[in-house]
Amino acid sequence: MTDSRSLKLTNDSDTLCELPVLSGTTGPDVVDVQSLYSKTGMFTYDPGFTSTASCRSSITYIDGEAGVLLYRGYPIEQLAEQCTFVEVCYLLLYSELPNNAELKEFANNITMHTMVHDQVNNFFRGFRRDAHPMAIMVGVVGALSAFYHDAMDIHSKEDRRICAIRLVAKVPTIVAMCHKYSTGSPFMYPQNKLGYVENFMRMMQATPCDDYEANPVLVKALDRILILHADHEQNASTSTVRLAGSSGANPFACITAGIACLWGAAHGGANEAVLNMLLEIDNVSRIGLYIDKAKDKNDPFRLMGFGHRVYKNHDPRAKLMRETCHEVLNELGLRDDKMFKLALELERIALEDEYFIAKKLYPNVDFYSGIVLHALGIPSKMFTAIFAMGRTIGWVSHWDEMIADPDQKIGRPRQLYTGQTRRDVPPNRG
Ligand code: SDX
To answer: Among 102, 31, 137, which residue's Cα sits nearest to residue 381?
Structure first.
């Protein structure tokens, strides 16, 4: 989108340059600084990209002040209530919600790609049984690059679509394999007669000796968790996928870069960190101690599951996740779950505390997801892998959009250099 408006950059005496101002369909305008260096010899400086738009995108829109999240224009609340995760995958990838025939074909296409090449099993044998699932995910998803040379022409729209399907279909299988490997149980193969989430839950819980039929309430809860995690604009891991993809790296390698970035505790690792924090706090009487630690500038402790770079109001996903928490705990007869009650009290106290109010620190999507996943019987080490399972569709949709963008070029930021200026190597360095 372009606009006739511009922004003049001036110093005390004259105009250094005039930069175009661009508008999207909604949200903040942008100042197009692509010509800034050639016109002024200066770079912009924005560590953490707090005020930087890295691309054009039509996939997800966030209004952090209003607590709004839209996937292709649809509010997350409506998608979470009225759609399935597979429908949302279609929406994110193809821009529109599917009709029944389109959904049936898309879901069947995914089902037909849920198995991994049998030699993928061998990669697991190299890991210790107690390896973190995200370490295994980085290894195994990256290794998929070695199996699909037949369809990795990134400039072919058809190849990009089949790569997207393969990734959305195989990541749950690999996540379940990570869990089975850590428990010393044999891998369970996907069943084509099952839906996406049922299939995953069976691969996680069934054994060759004992099948598993998922509780529909729990299936719906996990389906909603995947919807809430499916995409989130230009977050750290999605930006990582885009940057990796801008060099022409294959999609399996790019998604692997996203998985690696998501693992960080400040990002997707927060759900596991929330549960560990609640276990450490242990009881309501100790909440004050941890709130004080979170406020202490000299203490690196942060209240995990609170705060967000964009949401300076409630994260709409946190509210939906809290509702899901209630549903799952009620279904499992855990309404008096100690962890959940501790979380509710921690949320109440934090939201009344001046520090959190002043810094606009609200619960984010990760605050309640760990409790739900814990109640579903998923080990905390697996939480971020579940996040990756939901986010794969977002990553691959952004990757596809970037490759198709005519303005796309390799990402190569500059810097503010603060090191030594030129100097000679001293002759006698004895
Ligand atoms: C996700 O980007 C996305 O969209 C991410 C995500 C997605 O879907 O992809 O939404 C998923 O990553 C959610 C966030 C999960 N992370 C956590 O819950 C970890 C705890 N949160 C913080 O680490 C922090 O809030 C961040 C990383 C989420 C955001 O950090 P910012 O935007 O860089 O903000 P900041 O670190 O500059 O903090 C601003 C102030 C600081 O104090 P001052 O230096 O101004 O005095 O708020 C304080 C921070 O110390 N602060 C916190 C805090 N978060 C920020 N203080 C205590 N506890 C916290 N959780």
So the answer is: 137
Active site residue 14: no
Give dist(CA 339, CA 352) in Å, integer: 20
3-state DSSP helix/strand/coil % of the chain, to nearest 5: 55, 5, 40
> What is the rounded distance in angstroms from the CA atom of residue 369 to the CA atom of residue 270?
10
149 in catalytic set: no
> Along the 430 residues of the chain, how does pLDDT read in single tens digits?
445 699 999 888 888 899 999 999 999 999 999 999 999 999 999 999 999 999 999 999 999 999 999 999 999 999 999 999 999 999 999 999 999 999 999 999 999 999 999 999 999 999 999 999 999 999 999 999 999 988 889 999 999 999 999 999 999 999 999 999 999 999 999 999 999 999 999 999 999 999 999 999 999 999 999 999 999 999 999 999 999 999 999 999 999 999 999 999 999 999 999 999 999 999 999 999 999 999 999 999 999 999 999 998 889 999 999 999 889 999 999 888 888 899 989 999 988 999 999 999 989 989 989 889 999 999 999 999 999 999 999 999 999 999 999 989 999 999 999 999 999 999 998 8
Among candidate residues 366, 374, 398, 400, the one labeled active-site is 366
216-229 vs 365-375: helix crossing angle, rounded to 10? 150
The residue whose CA is least distant from atom 33 of ligand 1 is: 309
Cβ 232 under 6 angstroms from ligand 1: yes
Which residues are CB-neighbours of 334 under 8 A, at least 6 positions away? 328, 340, 375
306 C-alpha to ligand 1 centroid (Å): 7
Q: Which atom of ligand 1 is nearest to the CA of 365?
A: 13
Residue nearest ligand 1's atom 30 by CA? 309
Q: How far is the CA of 79 from the centre of ligand 1 (A)?
A: 26
Which residues fall within 8 angstroms of residue 46, CB to CB, at 6 or more apart?
Answer: 52
| Helical packing angle, 216-229 and 85-94, nearest 10° | 20
